[in-house]
Amino acid sequence: MSKSDPNEKSRVLILDSPDLVRKKIRSAVTDSDPDVRFDPEAKPGISNLLEIMATCTGRSVDDLVDEYGSGGYGKFKDGGAEAGMAT
C-alpha cells in the first residue's frame, strides 16, 4: 500500500469507513504462492500486510507467520482486515 500512488485502493486512510478498510485489505495485491511468509524481495505485498497487521495488533511478524503461514491468503487477509478495524 502506498500513499503516493494515485489509485485510492493503494492505501488505507484514517477517515475510510470500516467497510472500505476491510475491502481494501482483502483486495490487496499478493502473488500466486499461498504461503504467508515475510520475504520483502519475493513477497512484497504479503510482507507489507504482515508489517501492517503487526503494527495494528502489537504482535510480532514471526508470530503472525506462525499463525497464518499455511492457512492461505483469505484467512490472513480477513485477520488483517479485522485487526485494522480494531485500532
Entry keywords:
mainly alpha, 4 helices, 52% helix
Structure write-up:
There is one protein chain. 52% of the residues lie in helices and 0% in strands. The chain has helices spanning 18-26, 44-57, 61-68, 73-86. The protein starts with 17 loop residues before the first helix and ends with a helix. The mean pLDDT is 84.
Largest sheet: none
Strand tally: 0
What is the mean predicted local confidence, pLDDT?
84
Distance between the termini: 18 Å
Report helical residue fraction.
40-55%
**Contiguous runs where pLDDT drops below 50 for at least 5 residues:** none
Proportion of residues in extended strands: under 5%
List the helices and strands and how they pair.
Layout (H helix, E strand, L loop, with lengths): L17 H9 L17 H14 L3 H8 L4 H14 L1
Helix pairs in contact: 1-4, 2-4
Q: Can you summarize this structure?
A:
The chain is mainly α and 87 residues long.
